[in-house]
Amino acid sequence: MKTFKLENEPKIESGFSTPEHYFENFLERMMQQLPEEKPKVISFFQKRKRTLMMAAAVLVIALLIPQINRSLRASKELDATTIENYLSYQSNMNQYDLINALDTEDINNMQATVVLEDKTIEDILATNANLEHLLLE
Questions:
Q1: Tens digit of pLDDT for each residue in 5-19?
Q2: Which segment of 15-19, 45-49, 57-61, 119-123 scores lowest on mean pLDDT?
Q3: Phi, psi at residue 89, to the nearest 5°?
Q4: CA-based nearest residue to 92, from 105, 101, 103
Q5: Residue 1 banded pLDDT, cuts 50, 70, 90
Q6: How far is Cα 46 from Cα 52, in angstroms, rounded to an integer?
Q7: Which residues contact 110 (CB under 8 A, 6 or more apart)?
Q8: Closest CA to 121 of 110, 133, 134
Q9: 27 — alpha (psi -120 to 50), left (phi > 0) or beta?
Q10: Which residue in 110, 120, 46, 116 sits closest to 84, CA to CA?
Q11: Please, are residues 125 and 131 in contact by the beta-carbon 8 Å criterion?
């Protein structure tokens, strides 16, 4: 195969060339062709910006209200099992300290009427081996 060297070959002239003094007054000719007035552009977003902002604010508030209510309600209310577990496992209070700390009104509010049949009481006493403990309390 014959080696091909680009520098040794005759160069082909391009058929395109710039006219004489073309770039000297190019800016002036281009400015003359441009329109004098700028067209008025009204953006869709700018036209409805206020409406979109109000809708976004209403949507954010509507989504936050249930979250705020849920967090406020959860922080104020403790269920009975949580309090009972805390008092029985985490606290150093025994039942006598608890009774002494409560007012008579609190004790009356806690009293509940429990209706037990005689058969139920007999079953509990028969199955419980620690009968003396139940009688002392």
A1: 777 777 777 778 888
A2: 45-49
A3: -110, -35
A4: 101
A5: low
A6: 10
A7: 102
A8: 134
A9: alpha
A10: 110
A11: yes
The greatest distance separating any two alpha carbons of the chain, rounded to the nearest whole angstrom, comes to 124
Alpha-carbon distance values, 45 to 1, 40, 59, 105, 124 (Å): 67, 15, 18, 65, 76
Tokens at residue 127, please? 């199955």
Measured in whole angstroms, the distance separating CA 86 from the mean position of its chain's CA atoms is 30
Instruction: List Cβ neighbours of 98 (8 Å cut-off, separation of 6 or more).
Output: 87
Asked if 92 and 101 count as a contact pair (C-beta separation under 8 A), the reply is: no
Q: Name the residue among 137, 131, 40 with its Cα closest to residue 96.
A: 137
Concatenating the DSSP letter of every residue in the chain gives -----TTTSPPPPPS--PPTTTTTSHHHHHHHHS-SSPPP---HHHHTHHHHHHHHHHHHHHHHHHHHHHHHHHHH---HHHHHHIIIII----HHHHHHHS-HHHHHHH-------HHHHHHHHHH-S-HHHHHH-
